[in-house]
């Protein structure tokens, strides 16, 4: 077991090169947010933008368009019911994040299947929330892409068949990771990141984080970090640590830390922890 700590950030967050533009920092397409779960995709989208992704497009239920723009004029927004728009937005992305607030009805399943059909092997695909649940319940095969799964413990139980009480068995989790051939971020009060060769444990985090939308925020941060930083395993680990370390700072003076508060602190936190010049 290796540990994720502040050193992981310094190894990952590069100083922005002068000669760069928005394309240097990746194009993310996020897919999620049904008519009832708009907040989830707003938080994921905000987290991606505040993490520094160059271009962010969100495909969602049209009910969410105005509220996303009210929070975040930087994001482009389109209707995920339009298959042509969904397909071209996925094709144009370096990184896709799917599942935050997507829901698990027939409409959501159709959206998920379109995305799985469209992604290509070189693209990074982050699968969270409802999308993980549907992969499990609908027995979907994962597409050929560079996949990152971000399950909480119940989602991991659904996907892996490993009961929550048995998830402390690192070797069992690793065996399923090997079958899935993905980076697995197994979220808990001490989140673990499973990669091909290693298992990392987060050293930050607080019960003040136990509030809805916290994982949606992490999914957007993971998207933002992998879009920008070359070493994808380090990028995932750094996002996990940054999310919790910001919460730890805020929890010194707050009983509960809200996801959007973490989001607003990301740019400052990244600046404080970028690589030495
Ligand atoms: N504001 C919003 O729009 C929000 C939308 N959300 C979305 O709602 C959808 C369903 O996700 P949920 O996670 O709520 O529902 P799920 O049905 O996937 O899982 C939650 C269930 O697992 C139980 N549970 C037990 N131990 C747990 C643990 N260690 N971690 C997590 N759950 C544990 C919970 O009590 C609950 O019954 C997702 O698409 C998600 O993105 C949630 O993120 C909440 C906020
Ligand atoms: N007690 C805790 N200590 C540290 N981190 C926590 C704790 N409870 C929840 N978290 C973090 O909050 C997030 C919850 O994710 P998830 O259950 O997917 O939330 P949601 O789907 O509501 O956005 C994870 O990153 C998890 O590590
Ligand atoms: Mg979640």
Characterize the structure shown.
The protein is α/β, with parallel strands linked by helices. It has one domain: UDP-N-acetylmuramoyl-L-alanine:D-glutamate ligase (3-Layer(aba) Sandwich), CATH 3.40.1190.20. Helix content is 45%, strand content 16%. The chain has 11 helices and 10 strands. The chain has a 10-stranded mixed beta sheet with strand order 1-10-9-8-7-6-5-2-3-4, with helices on both faces. Helix 2 (38-50) runs parallel beside helix 11 (259-272). The radius of gyration is 17 Å and the shape is globular. The relative contact order is 0.18. The mean pLDDT is 98. Residues 129, 152, 187-189, 191, 205-207, 209-210, 212-216, 218 line the site of adenosine-5'-diphosphate.
Summarize it.
It catalyses: (6S)-NADHX + ADP = AMP + phosphate + NADH + H(+); (6S)-NADPHX + ADP = AMP + phosphate + NADPH + H(+). The chain is α/β, with parallel strands linked by helices and 277 residues long.
Write the layout of secondary structure elements.
Elements: E1 2-4, H1 6-12, E2 27-31, H2 38-50, E3 55-60, H3 65-71, E4 76-79, H4 83-91, E5 95-98, H5 106-118, E6 124-128, H6 129-137, E7 146-150, H7 153-160, H8 170-180, E8 183-186, E9 192-194, E10 199-202, H9 214-228, H10 232-251, H11 259-272
Parallel strand pairs: 1-10, 2-3, 2-5, 3-4, 5-6, 6-7, 7-8
Antiparallel strand pairs: 8-9, 9-10
The structure holds ligand NAX, adenosine-5'-diphosphate and magnesium ion.
Residues 129, 152, 187-189, 191, 205-207, 209-210, 212-216, 218 line the site of adenosine-5'-diphosphate.
């Amino acid at each position: 077991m290796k540990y994720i700590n502040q050193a992981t950030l310094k190894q990952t967050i590069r100083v922005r090169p002068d000669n760069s533009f928005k394309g240097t920092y990746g194009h993310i397409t996020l897919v999620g947010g049904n008519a009832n779960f708009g907040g989830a995709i707003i938080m994921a989208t905000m987290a991606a933008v505040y993490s520094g992704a160059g271009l962010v497009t969100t495909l969602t239920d049209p009910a969410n368009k105005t509220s996303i723009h009210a929070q975040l004029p930087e994001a482009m927004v389109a209707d995920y019911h339009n298959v042509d728009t969904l397909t071209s937005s996925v094709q144009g992305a370096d990184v896709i994040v799917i599942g935050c607030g997507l829901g698990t009805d027939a409409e959501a399943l159709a959206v998920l299947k379109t995305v799985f059909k469209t992604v290509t092997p070189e693209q990074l695909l982050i699968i969270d929330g409802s999308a993980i649940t549907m992969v499990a319940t609908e027995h979907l095969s994962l597409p050929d892409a560079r996949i990152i799964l971000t399950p909480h413990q119940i989602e991991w139980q659904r996907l892996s068949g490993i009961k929550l009480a048995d998830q402390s068995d690192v070797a069992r989790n690793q065996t399923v990771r090997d079958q899935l051939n993905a980076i697995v971020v197994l979220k808990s009060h001490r989140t673990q990141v499973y990669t091909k060769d290693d298992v990392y444990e987060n050293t930050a985090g607080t019960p003040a984080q136990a509030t809805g939308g916290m994982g949606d925020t992490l999914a957007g941060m993971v998207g933002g970090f992998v879009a920008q930083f070359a070493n994808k395993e380090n990028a995932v680990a750094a996002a996990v640590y940054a999310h919790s370390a910001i919460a730890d700072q805020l929890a010194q003076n707050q009983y509960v830390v809200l996801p959007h508060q973490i989001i607003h602190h990301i740019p400052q936190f990244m600046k404080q922890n970028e690589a030495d010049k």
